[in-house]
Amino acid sequence: MRSYRPFNVYEQLSTEGFYEEANLDKDEVKKVIFMVMEDYIFGKSLRKLKDPSWRVIFNIHYDIFRELCDQLMRFERQKTSNHQGLFAFVVLHFKDLELDWAFLENIRTVRNRNKYEGLDISKEMWKSAELKFDLYISAIKKEIENRLH
């Protein structure tokens, strides 16, 4: 699917049946969040290595962010395996987070080009995403914690 606005992505994927009903098990969400945040701490430690793999660092942070979005989506009793659809859903249903759709499309595209086309991820590519990854991971974790209580 080409890059569209979040509403267009959501509408198309809804029509095609990409969104499914999901159970909300708060204990499961807590366990997943705990593990994801352990991964986040580890991913942050990799940034301090003398000569790190920026590809590995980027992909760890992407996976953490995606998993947090997936857990947040559970509060709306929905799930999807489509990353673009996941991000569109979160942008549309959690507007207070004020997520930047262009950034989400960029990181998704970088990740896909790495996974499916063999494009490496440079230090510059990582550095251009680092701050927003950290901000968005923090904001979504906080939103999930608020909904858990």
Describe this structure in words.
- A two-stranded antiparallel sheet has the order 1-2.
- The chain is mainly α.
- It has helices at 6-15, 26-46, 54-74, 83-93, 101-117, 123-148, and strands at residues 20-21, 78-79.
- The N and C termini lie far apart (37 Å).
- The radius of gyration is 15 Å and the shape is globular.
- The mean pLDDT is 96.
Record keyword descriptors for this entry.
globular, mainly alpha, 6 helices, single chain, 149 residues
At a glance:
The chain has 149 residues and is an all-alpha fold. The chain contains six helices and two strands; from the N terminus they run αβααβααα.
For the biggest β-sheet, the strand order reads 1-2
State which percent range the strand residues make up: under 5%
Radius of gyration, in angstroms, nearest whole number: 15 Å
Uncertain ranges: none
Can you give the mean pLDDT?
Answer: 96
Query: What is the element string, with H for helices and E for strands?
Result: HEHHEHHH
Choose one word for the global shape: globular
Span of the ends, CA to CA = 37 Å
The level of helicity is over 70%
What characterizes the major β-sheet? 2 strands, antiparallel
**How many strands in all?**
2
Count every helix, treating DSSP H or I runs of 4 or more residues as helices: 6
Category from helices, strands and their pairing: mainly alpha
